[in-house]
Amino acid sequence: MLVVEDEVKLASLIRTALREQGLLADVAIKGEDALWMAAATPYDVVVLDVNLPGIDGFETVRRLRGEEVQTPILMLTARDGVEDRITGLDTGADDYLVKPFDFGELFARVRALARRGPTETGPELRVGDLSLDVARHTARRGDVEIELSTKELQLLEVFMRRPGQVLSRYDLLERAWDMEYENRSNVVDVYVGYLRDKIDRPFGVESIETVRGAGYRLRA
Ligand code: CA
Q: How many Å lie between the centroid of ligand 1 and the Cα of residue 65?
């Protein structure tokens, strides 16, 4: 991980706490340093303070995304300001945490982001005759374009990045929903149903399998 925080004492505390959890972190104290470090090293997650000397956290995210660095970014905001959060997410951050924060919550957020992996805007995903253009938010089976809601697209993307892999409801929740849904696993079943109604049933196929007691799997 990369921790970008100019308060040296806090940065060091975060690094030590992460290490105790088995997570290794480099520390940068300026946004400018974060730019070259994150470009040079494929970190799993960047934890980025908003208030930094020189270029601030928002500008750092903007430039990282501009440089095609797609590492998940967790922003640390000083205030519980809605504006800060919106600005952070708009500029390309993936999540935020309000200072002062609980280390347990930091670990949970960092792990969730690390598991989710980079938000690639790359080429089309393909599994059989099913294709998904992540950047353009369009799905097709063969030549037929399928209209999906944002959440359905996100869920389909999770499946299509892991064809043949059994994904538990919890895996799917973590990757396609926010933390707030953590205890509502039936939402996954509902959305898998919606997806089947759109990508499978009209075409007479069963690409999303139910694996009893384990979860779901997109046939490779
Ligand atoms: Ca700071």
A: 21
